[in-house]
Amino acid sequence: MVHAWLNVEKNPTQTLQDFLRSLMEKGVVEAILAPAPTAGGESITPTLFTSPDRLSQAEPFAPLMPVSEATVVSMLTRTGNRIKLGAVMRNCQIRALVELVKFKQAQLDNLIIIGIDCPGTYELKDYSELVRKGVEPATQMLESLARGELPLNQTLREACRMCIYPIPDPSIAAITIGLMGFDGNRLPILVQDELAEKIGLTSDSPSTHREETIRSLLENRKAERKRQIDRFAKEGTGVEGLLRWFSRCIRCHNCMGICPICYCRECVFRTPVFEHESDRFFDWAQKKGAIQMPPEYLLFHLTRMNHMVTSCVGCGLCSSACPADIDVALAFQSVGEEVQALFNYVPGRSLEEPAPVQTFQEREFVELGETLK
Amino acid sequence: MPEELKMGEFEPKIIAFVCNWCTYAGADLAGTSRIQYPPNVRIVRLMCSGGIDPIYVLKAFLQGADGVLIGGCHPGDCHYQNGNYKARRRVAILKKTLERLGLDPDRVWLRWISASEGQLFADTVTEFVSFLKEKGPNPFKTLQAM
Questions:
Q1: pTM
Q2: ipTM greater than cut 0.85
Q3: Which domains does chain B have, with CATH numbers?
Q4: A238 vs B103: CB contact, 8 Å cut-off?
């Protein structure tokens, strides 16, 4: 691993744009996938750049993630990509991508992951409101980091405030751009050995300030995570709590559509399985005196949870995409943490470990099938 | 009102998802051997316990089943090599999920019952019924909102 620095002349965004451009010009990659503003600038979306000149539009530090780039990388690599691609990603996106690779929904051939330290992202409505007020959210965030402030801002999405994996793993991301401990003058960068040679980076001392900042950030994040998970345990569990937690569900299935892990091409909830003859509905209603129509909302959430919670990376997009403001992500994180612990599994941690639902051991959970004596 | 609540003693309703090659044949053997067991169980036959999706179990609970029994082949005996191991992992995930959500994981039973174990099938159902009678009805059954 080579530690080096990128000097910031004007601002970090431009430094990163120049670095990405140099990757293309040196032939390290032929294309770059990076976040860039949509027309009007009120949102940010993953953008596929094939011309180095266009990279001045990239805004990888903009604190917004309306979709997971993992979904886009899956789109670009699932059936194999022949173009050498560099993808600028936040760690929850990288972790989701690792899970998608395990499920054969993405491939890492010809892909260079360029991870960036993630200070967190805003809800789309908060971000666009700032833009309309004339504020540049990326600049604002970078300035506050340069002042030595920890990114704990209340405008961050809840999933970001409780995220304990904001830093890319340098064994998975070939290049990591450090933002934590940014001093306003230079950005620390970590590059895997063979690539460093190609880019022409010389080894320098690592950033100790970055390590310290990460440590105190994680302490804060862990405490917030515990607070939120305790809140769910208090408010969202038990029959009544759970029904109330999801009671505003309008069955739009946005949480499923936006989820980077929910990859099934034909989800059972989008098949005719729940279309019934009229008489069946009347029968069910008659049994209870009244039933809500359409009848399933908890079944959808609980089934989806059982299907994918072992691989849930906690990106929080399900909550952000919910038009009824249901905190779907907190329920999934609360359950995920314990279910994943059963298998000592951390989604996105390693490409070597199979996902829990992909494998089994002959000697495990033996008490489950045994008759009680 | 659900019929169980009208008639005095609570009779639990159990939905059993059983493997075609073992537990289903075991239940059949219990019948042909005239072994008595409570009539509280509704059997759904699957080709393998590994074919059980958590949605079946969850649907049964949300519709008011008091217990769900999953019957598969003993470890090492799966007709399809390893479907029962996959089922066991899914049940482990499901039970942990239910526990974390403050629902009752003990209403799901996974049992290995072979084609020759008619008596074990009858005993398991008997035991499950008395366990559920003690536990009481599934709270989802009586909810107005659902």
A1: 0.95
A2: yes
A3: 3-142 (3.40.50)
A4: yes
